[in-house]
Amino acid sequence: MDKNEKILRLLEENAHFTHKNIADAVGMTEEEVDRIIEDYEEQGVILGYKALINWDKTAREYVSAIIEIKVQPIKGEGFTQVARQICAFPEVVSCYLMSGGFDLAVTLEGKSMKEVAMFVFEKLSVIEGVTGTATHFVLNKYKDKELIFEAQEKDDRQMMGL
Known about the structure:
Layout: H1 3-13, H2 19-26, H3 30-43, E1 63-71, H4 80-87, E2 92-97, E3 104-110, H5 113-124, E4 130-137, E5 143-144, E6 147-148
Antiparallel strand pairs: 1-3, 1-4, 2-3, 5-6
Helix pairs in contact: 2-3
């Protein structure tokens, strides 16, 4: 792995690392690291810096859902126009073009299952080109962005024999 890739991996691991910490880790000067990071920000390689929050440990009430979407591609645009429309909604956390039975996978958050269902019904399903959806509610997060969420309390229920 070259030094530039190592810089990116260190930032991805922890955006709180100072440029001095990174310079020491990769064997460069702080000024060299400053320049490389600035270049990556200008080129759009580094898009931003965010904290990963375990919202289950806060008072915030929300639900997450993964929605698979079938799309009739638009001539000359493919799936891009529909994906752009979907990405414009503030509820949408992520949107991916996928292979398989569905074309797009969308992650979104809402205050309740009903709010998510209404979003799908009123906003997603009416977009021109959307031909079908399948909604899956996230029940628990075990790992996200390479971080493992702390172990849940042990389940002491016993399996029943058939």
